[in-house]
Amino acid sequence: MSANTLTEERRSRLHRRVKFIVGFTITWNVIEAIIALAAGAVASSAALIGFGLDSVIEVASAAAIAWQFTRADPERWEKVTVRVIGIAFFALAAYVTVDAILALTGVRDPDHSPIGIGIAIASLIVMPALAWFEFRTGRELGSKSVQADAKQLLLCIYLSGTVLIGLLLNTLFGWAWADSIAALVVAVLAIREGIEAWRGDLESPFEVLEDLDQDVR
C-alpha cells in the first residue's frame, strides 16, 4: 500500500505509531546517553563517549520527528526535518573524529569499561527491532523524515557493534588503539548517512528482511 492510497484511518494509526516510536526512542536514549557518557568519561573512551553523544543526537532526531507529527500537516515539514537529522549525523561525525584522534595521539588513554560493554550489548538487542519497525512505518507513510530517523537508529546499531568490539579488544588484549579505530569507523558511517539524509536519498537498510516479509505475504 502506497502513501497515496492510505485511508485516513490508517494514516492516523500510523501517525500514532510514529509518536509511540519516538517516545520510546527518546526515553531509551536519554537513559543510554547518561550511562554511556558517564562510563566513557571514567574510562576516557572516545568510542564510548561517541556512543553516548549518538544517543543524545538520536534524542534530538526523535524530538524533531515528534515536533513534525504534532503539526496539522506533517508532510509539509518533511524537508526541514530531514535536513535537521542530516546535520545531526555530521555533528556526531565531527566530534567522534576529534575525540578519536586525541586518543590515537596519546592525549587520552582509554581504560576498561564493563559498564560500557553492558550498555553496548543492550543497545544491540533493542535497536535493530526498533529501527526496522520505524523504517517500515515511515515507508508506508511515504515519510522520508521517519525513514531518516530509522537510519539514525541503524547507525546506533553499527556504533554499538564497533564500540563493543573496541572495548572488548581493549579489555582482553590491552589494545587501546582499537577503541579509537572503532570510533573512526562510526564517524565514516555517520558522514555517509548524513549525506544521504541531506539529499533525501533514503534506501532501505533492511532489504533482506523486507524481501522475507514480502515472501511471507
TrEMBL record:
Signal sequence span is none
The topology of this chain with respect to the membrane is: Multi-pass membrane protein
Q: Which InterPro entries match?
A: Cation_efflux_TM, Cation_efflux_TMD_sf, Tmem163
Q: Where in the cell is it found?
A: Cytoplasmic vesicle, Secretory vesicle, Synaptic vesicle membrane; Early endosome membrane
SUPFAM superfamilies membership: Cation efflux protein transmembrane domain-like
Q: Which positions fall inside the Cation efflux protein transmembrane domain?
A: 28-195
User: Which UniProt keywords are present, listed alphabetically?
Assistant: Cytoplasmic vesicle, Endosome, Membrane, Synapse, Transmembrane, Transmembrane helix, Zinc
Which Gene3D superfamilies does the record associate with it?
A: Cation efflux protein transmembrane domain
Any stretches that span the bilayer, and where are they? 20-42, 48-69, 81-103, 115-133, 153-169
Keyword field contains Ubl conjugation: no
The protein, known as = Cation transporter
Source organism per entry reads Microbacterium bandirmense
